[in-house]
Design goal:
The protein is an alpha+beta fold. It is 34% helix and 18% strand.
């Protein structure tokens, strides 16, 4: 998705897109909000993000834009 739909994601990355794409394509690289969005767009599933904060589990609703 990131490679094929650059125009959708380019405005949301913290660096030049070519460098960002190369960084994200590396094995073992951690994803971010843009890669999560691309995964949601690819799968067409609603996604929720869970995190643990101060030993209390909470669910954060993540409103993702749609391609």
């Amino acid at each position: 998705m990131l490679k094929d739909y650059r125009s959708l994601y380019e405005g949301h990355v913290p660096m030049k897109y070519k460098g960002y794409y190369k960084k994200m394509a590396k094995s073992g690289e951690w994803g971010d909000h843009v890669t999560l969005q691309a995964a949601a767009d690819r799968s067409s599933f609603e996604q929720h993000i869970a995190r643990k904060c101060n030993s209390i589990s909470s669910v954060i609703e993540c409103y993702l834009w749609h391609a």
